[in-house]
Amino acid sequence: MATDGDPSLLEDVVKLLEKLPSIIEDVRHSELWTIDLGGDDDKNTEIVVRKFLEQHSILPLLQWRRDAIPRSYLKKATEILTQSGLQYIMRVGDKHVMWVMVDENTIRSLSLLYEEFLRNRGLTRVGIAALENLTSVLLTARDEQDSDAHLKATCVVQFRPSYTPDIRSRGRSLRENIRDNFAKHVLRIQRYYPGLIGAIYVVRPSYDYLANMDIPENLLRNTTILQRARDLAGHLGADIPPEYGGTGMTLSECDCLKNMYGEPIDEPAIQEALQKHPLSMKSGSGLDEKNEETASFPVQETTHDTKAAKPEPEPALDKSALFPERLGPRHVRVDSNTIVKYGPGVRLAEAEAMHLVSTHTSIPIPKLFSAYSLYGTCYIIMSDEKGEPFSKYWDRNSERKRQNILGQLQDYVAQMRSMKGDFIGGINLSPCKGSIFIASSFEYDDEDYSYGPYASEEQFTEGIVQALQDRLPSHLLDEPADPDSNFWNTEYTIYQTVRQLPTMGHTIVFTHGDLHPGNMLVRSDGTVVILHWDHAGYWPDYWEYYRAMSARTWRRSWDRMVEEFVPPFYIEYAILRRVFITIWK
């Protein structure tokens, strides 16, 4: 037997070699790495045994911890976790439960609050700190001679994805970065924290996160998927928080981490920035606001029974109950010719725009029958248009027919641009709607939606600057900007760039605001119908081009198509594209 190497490892090798015969007898198998461990090849048997012990000893784990977990980083990462609400650990009966919140809005805010830290593998260290916090809680409970404490915890993972507009993007998204880090932590649990996690409950799973994740079999066997948070009480008992179906205290009230690291700030800057969302701040526009309980246009006559399409919800039913997931407007077909559009994002401004287009242009659109608002929810009743999606029509037809539909679109845009406006906003003096103005949360409600209307382009560009600033935590704006900070210098440059837009000589025109193939149908006679007027209103003349160029589409040649029916504004598009990327990433 070889005598070189670590003495302690040599001792382990000797012990294992002595036990090999009984081990082989128990498992009734002796082949490992092509070597018969029960044969006469003592030298190779020793090599295999030594290799096995080297790879499964504590040495690799200690080496990883030395390189991956400097104590200074752990302290900052733990501060982030305890103040952001991304991790909670509570005692439930004889076990501990760790809550992990994969909250995209919170994580996006962290990148602003802890810019330097998160730039340098920060998300990785935050995830490792969460596992270290759990081991500390479990070991502390055991050190306190709690005979019921186990060195294994239940884990609850709750996904809170933020709204992401369906728009072209370059580079890796925030969600992709979080997903990759999350997947790596799952593997770290398997490799460096074996046996730490028992049962796993995933609340309201996100397909974007779980679809491509390689979850080890032993973790997958113990994982339960729950579509509703309140169903968790059926698995963990009644002592958990009420939002999960229990009758216990809230997560913040019984968080074990508070006892270990001290009481966190009651209202930390992160939570304040998220809860007191800046969209609720009314920005001055110089224009009077308008009550949107009823539409100002006359209802068109129809032979269809629109009473059946006019639901009467109970007064006590609010929008949060009607649309718990807030995934956008709903479309319900009343009969073969009529649909009702209602729910999150639907405003009477859309119906006003449809009425304006139908009475002042020849643009084919769905016929508007009625529109009204009940208990804060808007309903628009319209005809159900029949036709082929623009993309499919384009792909199967000749160049002559393609040019025909582009010519129609050019005429439609010209008709819209002939209607001038003296303000920027929704057709009925409602606020501006667009991806730039809703980045901090998917909230379309008028009471929260406060960008505009604006009396001039100068005020509109200041509104864009305000939207850029509103993505930042409020306390960050209260502090003086550091002239040596890359972040603040970048912010200053983009603010000043946006403020150059009014110097380029624009006019305010009526704009659809969302011209892309998904909002176009082609009838059997080749007529193009324009759908979904929810972004329509009076905008600077460059807005139609920016929005059409930003849409995610089925062909790269779409950009060249756009120029054939919308006047191009290359510089303005480049500026607004940078604004969008800054706000969303």
Description:
There is one protein chain. The chain has 585 residues and is of the alpha+beta class. It folds into three domains: 7-56, no CATH class; 70-275, CRAL-TRIO lipid binding domain (Phosphatidylinositol Transfer Protein Sec14p, 3-Layer(aba) Sandwich), CATH 3.40.525.10; 389-584, Aminoglycoside 3'-phosphotransferase, Chain: A, domain 2, CATH 3.90.1200. 42% of the residues lie in helices and 14% in strands. The protein has 23 helices and 17 strands. The protein has helices spanning 7-27, 42-55, 58-68, 71-84, 104-113, 115-119, 122-143, 174-192, 207-210, 217-221, 233-236, 256-261, 269-275, 319-322, 348-360, 390-396, 399-417, 457-470, 474-478, 486-498, 543-550, 558-565, 570-584; strands spanning 31-32, 35-36, 87-92, 95-103, 153-160, 197-203, 223-226, 330-335, 338-342, 368-374, 377-383, 388-389, 425-426, 508-511, 520-522, 528-530, 537-540. The strands form five sheets. The protein has a five-stranded mixed sheet. A four-stranded antiparallel sheet has the order 8-9-11-10, covered by helices on one side. Strands 12-15-16 form a three-stranded antiparallel sheet. A hairpin with a 2-residue loop joins strand 10 and strand 11. Helix 4 crosses helix 7 (122-143) and helix 21 (543-550) crosses helix 23. It is elongated and about 95 Å long. The chain starts with 6 loop residues before the first helix and ends with a helix. Keywords: Transferase. This is Phosphotransferase enzyme family protein-like protein.
